[in-house]
């Protein structure tokens, strides 16, 4: 009698994404992962909330764009994160707009993200709320517990904190290396690699 090897905690895709078996991805056909992204357990990504547009032939609504959530390369979604596309009234109908996330984005434990777009090299702390249609540019650090108001635009190289969030500082020169997530990616998965010291 043969025994199957135990299944790992993560499912690893051809493009190097590591998705926890206990993550909840709803509407997977509308979720795009760029590759080398880590999705930990208890993460929920709402790909079922897609943009709809009036259909002329049926009088109903039909999907206008198939992507609800697009995530770049080397992103890290910590335990308990919720990614949800922002929604609003558009031409009299409530619809959802895509949530776009760049490369090297870290989202801390228990944070809720409903932004319109998040740039590259962004660090979002634990317990943050990034409200609807916020735009976060490149190289931004959002400290733990921050609530970013709806429609806020955060400029590049900013440090944001508070409830409501506001810019409290800027990323120092040479401080860009801390946004690199390649090494963190290697420490997660069924066969984690520990850094050699």
TrEMBL record:
InterPro entries from the UniProt entry: DCTN5, Trimer_LpxA-like_sf
Q: Which SUPFAM superfamilies does this UniProt record tie to the protein?
A: Trimeric LpxA-like enzymes
**GO CC, alphabetical:** dynactin complex
Q: Does the keyword Cytoplasm apply?
A: yes
Annotated keywords: Cytoplasm, Cytoskeleton
Keyword Electron transport listed? The answer is no
Specify where it is mainly localized: cytoplasm
Q: From the Swiss-Prot or TrEMBL record, state where the protein is found.
A: Cytoplasm, Cytoskeleton
**Record-linked PANTHER family:** DYNACTIN SUBUNIT 5
Family label: Belongs to the dynactin subunits 5/6 family. Dynactin subunit 5 subfamily.
User: What protein name is recorded for this chain?
Assistant: Dynactin subunit 5
């Amino acid at each position: 009698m043969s025994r199957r090897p135990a299944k790992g905690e993560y499912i690893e895709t051809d493009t190097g994404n590591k998705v926890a078996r206990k993550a909840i991805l709803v509407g997977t056909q509308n979720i795009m992962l760029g590759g080398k992204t880590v999705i930990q357990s208890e993460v929920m990504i709402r790909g079922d909330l897609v943009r709809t547009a009036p259909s002329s032939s049926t009088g109903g609504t039909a999907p206008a764009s198939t992507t609800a959530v697009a995530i770049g390369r080397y992103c890290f979604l910590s335990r308990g994160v919720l990614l949800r596309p922002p929604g609003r009234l558009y031409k009299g109908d409530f619809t959802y707009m895509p949530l776009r996330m760049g490369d090297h984005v870290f989202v801390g434990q228990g944070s809720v993200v409903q932004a319109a777009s998040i740039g590259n090299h962004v660090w979002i702390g634990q317990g943050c709320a990034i409200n609807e249609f916020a735009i976060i540019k490149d190289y931004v650090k959002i400290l733990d517990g921050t609530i970013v108001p709806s429609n806020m635009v955060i400029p590049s190289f900013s440090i944001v904190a508070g409830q409501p969030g506001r810019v409290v500082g800027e990323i120092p020169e040479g401080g860009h290396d801390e946004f690199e997530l390649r090494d963190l990616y290697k420490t997660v998965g069924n066969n984690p690699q520990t850094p050699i010291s």
